[in-house]
Fold this protein.
Amino acid sequence: MANKKLRIWLITGSHDPAISLYLRKKFSTYESQSNVKIQLELITWERIWAALIEAFKNNTAPDIVQLGTSWVRTFAHMGYLARIPEYLKSRPSINEGINRICLIDGVRYAVPWLVDTIIMAGRKDYMSLLGISKDDIRDWEGLMNVAKRIKKMKEEDPEIPKAVAVALKLERDTIQRFFSVLWARGWDFPNLDIVPERIIMDPVVLDTIKYFAIMKKICDRPEDINKHPYQVNEDFYRHGLAVFYIGSWYGIINRVNRMEQDMDDYCVLPFPTSGNKTCSYGGGTVLAVSSKSRLKEEAWNLVEYLISDDFMDGWAVTAVHAPAFESKFWQRRYTDERVRLMYEQTINSKIYPLHPAWLAIENELVKGIGYTIFRFLNKETNGGISLDDYSILAETDERIRRILKINQEVRYLD
């Protein structure tokens, strides 16, 4: 009997050949033990959304898909995802928000796979050299004061690294970092299941935008303000061009995997907060099976293998990822301070609102918040907030309100 062909699309952000080699080795072993042939395609984050939408529309979708957590509601709402069978042994995420994402009206449509939380990292050697303690940066006011202090030091010694590296570009990564700061300052989204009077046209949002802009002005040269998030990551993790960093934890995971705790100057720091509880954005990816798949049982069996320790322990190291669930990686929190702080940050993290039109809403937020940040960057002074500063946010709110109204009307017709 000919082997059944299972198609799977996984998301990649790296060209490291070790990733393909690991997948080929593991899939080859799996194929030899089951009556399936796995056809793998690795797709970048930049292409995966459009590729999936086109494939589902044309009835050419793969059997198994890896999805960003904020996409699950949209794909389930469009009828593209199969229900998880009761026999499948899923592993709950350490991020409770991801567990909620996978469950819709009491039905599970996806299983948690990888988690990705925004963190604050730092260089212990730079902190010691510049006389900065962890208490100095425990809140946002303290971090701003430290940034101003370092700027003055750099005027006398240009070799001193800048204070804070954080990406600012009109795309999803910037918004994840921005909402991490915003949530840690006590703000939260209104209920989007109704049509609220306002969403981001809010004094706390605008004050955080101003904070973000001032921080970029203090820390970055004009030519560095719009650097791509990947380059900002590399500048910190590979070249050590900043004392502190807000963003991805991949550089820390890489060092944890290399067992470099005692000899490494990179550390994870408690995320600054304006209250008693720290918080940042916590997303990741999940695995799901297409509702159009003719091999659902075989597909779910492969998904069950992909979340097993046999696959995940090596995959987390090879692809520099953190599993969404308890695993060998997270057990290191008992002996590694960096992993402990990453674990706590993930447990306390927040997800975006669970709304089927989130991608459209997110696109509006990227433009509205991004343009307003750049508006502040282009101001001659860092004076007060004027009514004009609210204009872009007001227009953004109105566009989001229209999206929410249309979504409500479609739901009503359904």
About this structure: Residues 391-413 form the longest helix (23 residues). Residues 148 and 218 are 7 Å apart (CA to CA).
